Amino acid sequence: MRVLTKALFVLSALGATLFLHADSHAKSYTYISAKELAQALTGPDRATRSAFRRPTRIPFPPDNAFRHDAAVLGKMLFFDPRLSGSQNISCSTCHNPSFGWATPVHPVASEQERVGRRHAPSIVNVAWTTPLFWDGRAATLEDQAVGPILDPNEMDSDFDTIIHRLEKVSAYRRWFDLVYPDEGITAGTVVRSLATYQRTIVSGGAPFDDWISGNAGAISDEARRGFELFRGRAGCISCHSSWMFTDNNMHDIGLRSPDLGQGALEGQPSSQNYHFKTPGLRNITMRAPYMHDGSIPTLREVIRHYANGGSIWVARDVDIEPFTISETEIDELIAFLNTLSTSNPVGQPPTLPAN
């Protein structure tokens, strides 16, 4: 009886249930199955499942509600180089679906081979992301879509030119008349279409999601130990929280970069110098190089950067504190990060309308 009572306490703490009934004449027990016991011992607890469970619906703002035809149009525009000044690059050039919707170079070269200061951030799960850009200067996707188009260090274009080009393409005229019959081709309808499509860019289910949903064998023991490090001694969870693994906040993580980040924006206090947006970690293994400036080529070096507490030449965020970690533990952290990437194939780029 004492052993069974102890089992009841342990399994209840793990979220499992063992029902026990006893009287003076007979004892009857209902046992959990071996599979349920294994899940209780190796799977996430209820609080973890709640904290990291994927949402079931994509949020869209009331003034740009989801429409399938707008998303289809936005996808064509996203992949169309006619939106850039020289018609050589598109949004997808820097936000490449084959590289986690980021780019594998550091930093990004523009139309005129001018080199930007920052690595292109991934736009996966951007529907849940605010503010936008590394420095947080855009509040909405509609605001964000304007920036790269006009930036001379990126697409180096203007909306008058874009509208003129699109109006010469009969298929685009038909699409805009269908989706926006009262407006047609305008800067606003181009931007709203792009934003609608980008909100549909959602990371696929990953092994971590299967584990969170109750499949205890979905990730390895090594990855589970990495997850415990991630939310424990390594302190990663301080900034990389929620199902997307970001707090959507700005932090100074001690990089050796002259870029002031959010602190360079008008009206921001100097205390925000070197503060940059926390990126989500979905599909992170596909998105090298890392950090806002693309200065760290591998995840192993990223982990060492944090373990060292960042560099010492700037004021670090209070959450960035050095910690001791072995090479084996770094392997475990990387094994966990690998479980955040989906094996789902990337969708094909659309067929673009001919001139």
TrEMBL record:
Listed InterPro entries: Cyt_c-like_dom (IPR009056), Cyt_c-like_dom_sf (IPR036909), Cytochrome_c_Peroxidase/MauG (IPR051395), Di-haem_cyt_c_peroxidsae (IPR004852), MauG/Cytc_peroxidase (IPR026259)
Chief location bin: periplasm
Signal sequence, renumbered to the chain: 1-22
Function: Involved in methylamine metabolism. Essential for the maturation of the beta subunit of MADH, presumably via a step in the biosynthesis of tryptophan tryptophylquinone (TTQ), the cofactor of MADH.
Source species taxonomy: Bacteria, Pseudomonadati, Pseudomonadota, Alphaproteobacteria, Rhodobacterales
Cofactor(s), by name: heme
One cellular component term from this protein's GO annotations in UniProt: periplasmic space
Domain of life: Bacteria
Binding site for heme c 1: 91, 94-95
Subcellular location: Periplasm
Gene Ontology molecular function terms on file: cytochrome-c peroxidase activity; electron transfer activity; heme binding; metal ion binding
PROSITE patterns the UniProt entry points to: CYTC (PS51007)
Organism (species): Tritonibacter aquimaris
Pathway(s) per entry: One-carbon metabolism; methylamine degradation
UniProt-annotated binding residues for heme c 2: 236, 239-240
Cofactor: record remark: Binds 2 heme groups.
Protein name stated in the entry: Methylamine utilization protein MauG
